[in-house]
Specification:
Strand order of the largest sheet: 14-15-16-13-12-18-19
Number of strands: 22
Strand content: 15-25%
Mean pLDDT: 94
Helix content: 25-40%
Low-confidence stretches: 1-12
Radius of gyration: 23 Å
Distance between the termini: 58 Å
Shape: globular
Number of helices: 14
CATH architecture of the largest domain: 3-Layer(aba) Sandwich
CATH class of the largest domain: Alpha Beta
C-alpha cells in the first residue's frame, strides 16, 4: 500500500492485506469527519474492522480531486497508462491468494470462487492495458467540397462508479480499467458490505503508478445520499452502476436530470434451456457453474431451468447429485465449496421464495429450508414448480434451482422470454440450426450456447429491457468512457 497511509492495527480477525481503513479522497488516505462503520464477516456477523464512513458532504472533495486527477491523467501518454494497468494486472496475480482470502473473508464466497474472481479482475486490467494505446478516430473528405472531416475520441471526464458486493474486485476492475485506459478519473462508491476489497484494489492501482488523484474510494453507510451527491456534482461526467433494477431506475432518473453519460448493469432472470438433444453431461456441468457459482449470488445466475420433458428426469437427478455434493461453511475454510449468503436479508428473501413455491405445490428434491442454518443456505433443487410461483418471476439471488418442463421449442422460447428482464440466457442443444434460431429470438443481451459461463473481459457484458443498458468489457466497454469530437477544416488550397 502507498507510504504514509495508516494501516489496520486493531481487528477481530487477522486480515490478509494491510488495507488503509480510511477513504481515498483527493489523492490522500483520509479519515474524513471521523465517523466509522464496521465491516463484518457474513459467516457469523463478527466485526472485522472499522473503516471511515464517508457522507454526502465528502462528495465535493472527491469530485474536485477527481477533476484535478482527470486533467493530469488524460495528459498522460496512452502507452504510459497502458504500462500502469499492466503493472496493476501483474500485482493482482502476484497477490492472488491474499486478495482471494480478503474477498472470502468480507463477502463469504468459497476460496475457489474468490481465486477465480481475482483472475477475472486481472483480465480486465490486461484487456484495457492492451487497448489503451489503440484509441483511434477517423479521417474523411467531404464528397463534394473536399473539406476535411476529422474525428477524435476523448475521455468523457470524471466518472462515478457504483459497484456491487457480490464481485467486489471484478466489478470494480471492469469499470475502472476502461475508464483509466482512456484517461478518465474515477470516484468509486463501494458497497457497505465489501469495501475492503475496493480499498485494496485502489492501493494496488496507486502502487502501479496511477495518478494519485485519478482514483478515489468513498465507503459509506449512507449510500443513497452520498451517491446522489456524487451524481449531482457539476464535475461528474459519467455514472456507471451495477446492482438491482429498482436502485438502477432511481439512479438513472438522477443521472438523466444531470444529463450524464450512463451505463446500467441491473438485475436478471436468466433462463437455462435444456433441449431433448442436449449433451446432458455438458449441460449439468454448465448448470453447476451458472447456478451455484458464488452461491447463486450473481446477476448472470441461472434463475429458471426450462427442461424438455423427455430429458427432465435424468437432468433433475444429475442436478440433485451436484447440489448434494456442495460443502457448506465459512468462505475461508479450504473445505468449503458453498459459502454463506451475504446477510440475513438475503437469506430471508430466498426462504420466502422457496416457501412460496412449496406452498403452491413445488417439490424440494435437494436442500431446502430444512438444511439451512444461519446464513448458510444449501444448494436447492425444486421440481413441479407452478407457473404462478414468485421464484419464476423474481431474481432469487441464491443457490436455488427451480425446474420447469416444456414440450416444444416454441413453448421454451415463450417461457424464456416471459420476464421483464433480459440479461442472459443459456441454451443446450446439438442442433446447429436450432442454436442459431435461439441466438436470434431469445430477448437478452447475452446468450450462452452450450456453455454456462458468458463473462469474458474481451466480450461486451450487458442486458436489455429491465436488465439495463450499456456494455462492459471488450471494445464496447471502452466506448462507454469516450466521447467523439468532430473537427472540420476546409479543403487544402481552398
Amino acid at each position: 500500500m502507498p507510504a504514509g497511509g495508516s494501516m489496520i492495527e486493531d481487528t477481530t480477525r487477522e486480515l490478509p492485506l494491510r488495507t488503509p481503513p480510511q477513504a481515498l479522497v483527493d489523492g490522500r488516505w483520509t479519515a474524513l469527519g471521523g465517523a466509522t462503520f464496521a465491516v463484518t464477516d457474513p459467516f457469523d456477523g463478527a466485526e472485522l474492522v472499522r473503516i471511515t464512513d464517508a457522507g454526502p458532504a465528502d462528495a465535493d472533495a472527491a469530485m474536485e480531486g477527481a477533476w484535478e486527477g482527470f486533467l493530469a491523467w488524460r495528459s498522460t501518454p496512452a502507452r504510459e497508462r497502458a504500462t500502469v494497468l499492466r503493472r496493476a494486472h501483474d500485482l493482482l496475480l502476484v497477490r492472488q491468494e491474499e486478495l482471494a482470502t480478503l474477498i472470502a473473508t468480507e463477502m463469504g464466497k468459497a476460496l475457489p470462487d474468490a481465486r477465480g474472481e481475482v483472475a477475472y479482475a486481472a483480465g480486465f486490467l490486461l484487456e484495457y492495458a492492451e487497448r489503451a494505446p489503440r484509441i483511434e478516430g477517423r479521417h474523411a473528405l467531404h464528397e463534394r467540397t473536399g473539406a476535411r472531416i476529422l474525428t477524435q475520441q476523448d475521455p468523457v471526464g470524471p466518472c462515478v462508479l457504483v459497484t456491487p458486493w457480490n464481485f467486489p474486485l471484478a466489478m470494480g476492475a471492469r469499470k475502472i480499467a476502461p475508464a483509466l485506459a482512456v484517461g478518465c478519473s474515477v470516484v468509486v462508491k463501494p458497497p457497505q458490505q465489501t469495501p475492503l476489497t475496493m480499498l485494496a484494489l485502489a492501493g494496488i492501482l496507486l502502487e502501479a503508478g496511477v495518478h494519485p488523484k485519478a482514483v478515489s474510494v468513498v465507503p459509506t453507510t449512507d449510500s443513497r445520499a452520498t451517491t446522489s451527491a456524487l451524481i449531482a456534482h457539476p464535475r461528474t461526467a459519467k455514472l456507471s452502476f451495477t446492482g438491482s433494477t429498482p436502485v438502477g431506475r432511481d439512479l438513472a432518473r438522477q443521472g438523466g436530470e444531470a444529463l450524464l453519460r450512463m451505463s446500467m448493469e441491473l438485475g436478471g432472470n436468466a433462463p437455462f434451456l435444456v433441449f431433448e438433444d442436449a449433451d446432458l453431461d455438458a449441460a449439468l456441468e454448465a448448470a453447476r457453474i451458472a447456478k451455484f457459482r458464488n452461491g447463486g449470488q450473481a446477476c448472470t445466475s441461472a434463475n429458471r431451468f426450462l427442461v424438455h420433458e423427455a430429458v427432465a428426469p435424468a437432468f433433475v437427478d444429475g442436478l440433485v447429485r451436484i447440489a448434494d455434493a456442495f460443502v457448506l461453511g465459512r468462505g475461508t475454510d479450504p473445505a468449503t465449496t458453498l459459502g454463506p449468503m451475504i446477510d440475513d436479508r438475503a437469506v430471508g428473501k430466498v426462504r420466502e421464495l422457496v416457501g412460496d413455491a412449496v406452498a403452491r405445490g413445488a417439490t424440494v428434491r435437494a436442500g431446502g429450508d430444512g438444511r439451512a442454518s444461519g446464513r448458510l443456505y444449501p444448494a436447492t433443487v425444486l421440481t413441479d414448480v407452478p407457473a404462478g410461483a414468485r421464484i419464476l418471476r423474481e431474481e432469487v439471488f441464491g443457490p436455488v434451482a427451480p425446474v420447469v418442463t416444456f414440450g416444444s421449442e416454441a413453448e421454451a422460447v415463450r417461457m424464456a422470454n416471459d420476464t421483464e428482464y433480459g440479461l442472459v440466457a443459456y441454451a443446450f442443444t446439438r442442433d446447429a440450426a436450432r442454436a442459431d434460431r435461439l441466438s436470434r429470438v431469445l430477448d437478452v443481451g447475452m446468450v450462452g450456447l452450450n456453455t454456462g459461463l458468458v463473462s469474458n473481459p474481451a466480450a461486451p457484458f450487458g442486458g436489455v429491457k429491465a436488465s439495463g443498458f450499456g456494455r462492459e468489457g471488450g471494445p464496447e466497454g471502452l466506448e462507454e468512457y469516450l466521447q467523439t469530437r468532430y473537427v472540420a477544416s476546409p479543403a487544402p488550397g481552398a
